[in-house]
Design a protein that fits this description.
The chain has about 300 residues and is an alpha+beta fold. It contains eight helices and 16 strands. The protein has two domains: about 200 residues, ApbE-like domains (T-fold, Roll); about 80 residues, T-fold, CATH 1.10.3980. Helix content is about 30%, strand content about 25%. Helix 1 runs antiparallel to helix 6 and helix 6 runs antiparallel to helix 7. The radius of gyration is 19 Å and the shape is globular. It is an enzyme of class 2 (transferase).
Amino acid sequence: MMLVYKAQVRKLFHAHIKIKIPVFCDEGLFDEFFAVLEKIDKNYNSYSEGSFFDRINKHAGEFVDVDSETIHILNEILYLSRLFDGEYDITVMPLIRLWGFYKDEERVVPSKEQIEAAKHLVDYRKIEVRDSQVKIAKGQEIITGSFMKSYAVDKLVQKIKNAGITDAIINAGGSTIRAINNKVHPEWNIDVKNTIGEEDLFKLRLSNAAYSTSAQNKIFLEIDGRKYGHILSPVSGFPSTNKQVGIISESCFVGDIISTGLFNQSPQGFTEKMDLLQEKYEVSGFLVDHDNNITFTENFRENIRQ
């Protein structure tokens, strides 16, 4: 039986997002589906003028009125942040700016003193959440890039299922992929890219699950002939030297946070943290370190298509 699909691609969250659904579905559903993403992009993306997180950032040091969804998102993030010993922190923006990711002029490696000064502003524990208000410390800034797009995709999955669709796939900029499957089409096959070459690392079977990946190959700085990736360690203040992390999970939101939070780990640290996370979540994954060695969790290999 040949399955036929139709797809649309639109740009949101600074990424091209592709939704693929069965060809017999009403074309008008695409507008409804992308509207879910557009609403979250407008209301919760820290880069969107007037969003709740934009307001929190612009009023650092003061309590800001927010809605219940902002409170829910932050409580989930703060819970997950505590699992990573400081290596996942949504207040990392001062370090990102220090390294020059939002500058046009010539960039230099920051001094030790500059890094230490910026690190004092990076501390998720200073985020204060109460009934309907949020406050960050003066000088802090939240960046939503590691979770908001994937949070929106989870909401989109709910909308697609509510429309009665049981076979679909969403590709959000290549870094977040979510498969929806049924008995007729039990799995999607996706290509896992090799960040250092043209060939794929492997093909992955994905069934009613999310695949989240973090990598340093697309967004980086070049200083004195050396490339520095955009995923920084809030603990060291320096960009990670690892190449890639891939995570299979039930939730895009959780998977995206985990792939970022584990990016600064050694192979041993990656394995230990994944063991801990697997006590709480259905997750599996791999790490490609700076020497291109790959460390897998035991349950990840079963998803690789031979």
